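Backbone shape codes:
***
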Amino acid sequence: MYKVIGSPKSRALRVMWALEELGQDYEVYPVAPRSDEILAHNPSGKIPALMTDEGVLQDSVAIVQYLADRHGGLTYPGGTVARARQDAMSQWIVSEIDAALWLKAKHSFVLPAEHRVEDVKKTAEWEFGQAMAMLERMKGDRPYLAGDMFTVPDLLVSHCAGWALSAKMPVPGGAFGDYLKSLRKRPAMQRVMEKIIALG
């Protein structure tokens, strides 16, 4: 059984969602960043970490792609053009969308107060909006970001959209907004939300 270490109200949600999509058993240890519990598994103090039968993994994107590869879901096969496109989407989401959200979070509550810059939050919000608009164009008319099936980048952008809403940042409407809403309605995500409520 996998063990997810980290608060579900963080990027650990991505790992939980992937495990639900893949039908894998897991337990959640809802610990905070930089806590003694996570430092024992990740020297950076960042969450999540995943305990596997082969050791501990860090970084939510690496963990989700590992699970997808290991269990044969949420991904196109390695060594294919479709997989390269999928990975390009994942990396773009991390570098442009996740990064803008993290920038706002750092200047809202993560950094020590004396190192926060209020105006940076406005820049982060603008960058997020620009990145989401570009992602909408990149998706085009395809049902999902990387093609005709739900894969890792869809999971990542859905999590980012939820993060944005909790940070009181607007997300796209229209057809792209409908696509984002549809991802949150997936049965696996609904099971994750039920588990989060049960964890308190």
In short: The first helix runs from residue 12 to 21. Strands lie at 2-5, 26-29, 49-52, 55-58. The chain has eight helices and four strands.
